[in-house]
């Protein structure tokens, strides 16, 4: 059960971090009236968040997979699948927006920048949901 406990803790950390971004940081960022400042804040935040969230998604998925390989259980493999699903979703849906936003100069920020950030937030909420779903799968599996 050791790997399962680690998977649960890790998925919880991932989900919590994603939820803070979706529920607190993104809405606060969008309240900024100044588009250049909005972009600068996103660029600084994104650079730090990726260093935390990507490893958490990998580690949580690996621990869930190891728990499933050793002990079996549908919810372990399904939870691992959900947290790993962040990668293809991020690369396909979010990464093109990330690249646009990270390549922009604050001098070039405008209402389109804001629109991109709004779309980015909507897509990031999917990552929050994947993290929460993975956490609930691991939690449920812990009680079986």
From TrEMBL:
Domain of life, per the record?
A: Eukaryota
Going by the UniProt record, its keywords in alphabetical order are:
Membrane, Signal, Transmembrane, Transmembrane helix
Pfam families the UniProt entry points to: Anthrone_oxy (PF08592)
Report whether Glycoprotein shows up as a keyword of the record: no
Spell out where the chain crosses the membrane: 74-97, 124-143
Q: Which InterPro entries match?
A: Anthrone_oxy
Q: What is this protein called?
A: DUF1772 domain-containing protein
């Amino acid at each position: 059960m050791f790997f399962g406990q680690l998977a649960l803790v890790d998925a919880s950390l991932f989900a919590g971090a994603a939820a803070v971004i979706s529920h607190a940081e993104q809405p606060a960022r969008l309240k900024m009236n100044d588009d250049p400042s909005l972009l600068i804040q996103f660029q600084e935040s994104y650079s730090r968040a990726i260093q935390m969230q990507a490893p958490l998604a990998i580690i949580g998925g690996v621990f869930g997979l190891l728990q499933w390989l050793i002990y079996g259980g549908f919810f372990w493999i399904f939870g691992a699948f959900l947290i790993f699903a962040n990668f293809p979703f991020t690369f396909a849906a979010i990464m093109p927006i990330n690249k646009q936003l990270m390549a922009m100069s604050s001098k070039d920020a405008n209402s389109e920048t804001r629109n991109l950030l709004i779309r980015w937030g909507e897509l990031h909420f999917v990552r929050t949901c994947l993290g929460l779903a993975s956490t609930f799968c691991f939690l449920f599996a812990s009680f079986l």
